[in-house]
Amino acid sequence: MTERDRFLYDAWTRQLERMRAMQYAYNRKFFVLLLVSSAAVACAFHLGSLPLLALVGPGLVTTGMTASFFLHQCDFARVHAQAMEQRINRLLGGRVLIASELEAEYFYPHAVPKLSGVTWGRPWTLFNWFTLHFTVSWAALTAWALWLLNARWESPVLVAYLVALGAWAASNVWVLARWFGTAHAERRMQDQLRADDGLTPGGN
Fold first, then answer.
1. What pTM does this model have?
2. Collapsing DSSP states into helix, strand and coil, what is residue 115?
3. Ramachandran region of residue 111, left (φ > 0), alpha (ψ -120 to 50) or beta?
4. pLDDT tens, 84-137?
5. What string of DSSP letters covers 79-125?
6. If residue 9 lies in a helix (H) or strand (E), which one and from where to where?
7. Euclidean distance between CA atoms 141 and 147, whole angstroms
8. Residue 71 in contact with residue 3, Cβ under 8 Å?
């Protein structure tokens, strides 16, 4: 291994460590978000006030959007880490680092179309079911809050609320479908990482 190779190995290893740290940090943020949102919803139902019940639906939509943002950050870290592992493996002449390969098999592949945490057209993993579980749970909690509001609101107010909530939910789903549905950003990032891998001039 030349001196330049050692410098590259050190630089890529540091980048790999940084991306793994970023990935773990956003995983922690994700589970803290679930804990806080669950506590907030439980508090809303326990207190039973109209403003708190009215916030359950929009709040859970925003929670889902925030969770998807954390997933987006994890995807960034995963794609970057995959590239660093591949570069280090090429430098070392073998499949020494394979964590990204295992992640793609165990969780979901890199740069594939999906809706937030649900991938399409592939054998489902527990990650897919986990995402579906919370989606169904949040929809049920929203329906429960609506049922309670229905008993205390006049029909015009309830209809206006349903329209606003439906528009808020639909607009967020549209954004997520646009972002995750083509995996364009992840693929563009992969192309950027391949453009110059540092091993040879031009990244060849």
1. 0.86
2. strand
3. left
4. 999 999 999 999 999 999 998 888 888 888 888 888 777 788 889 999 999 999
5. HHHHHHHHHHHHHHTS----HHHHHHHHT--TT--EETTEESSS---
6. helix 3-47
7. 10
8. no
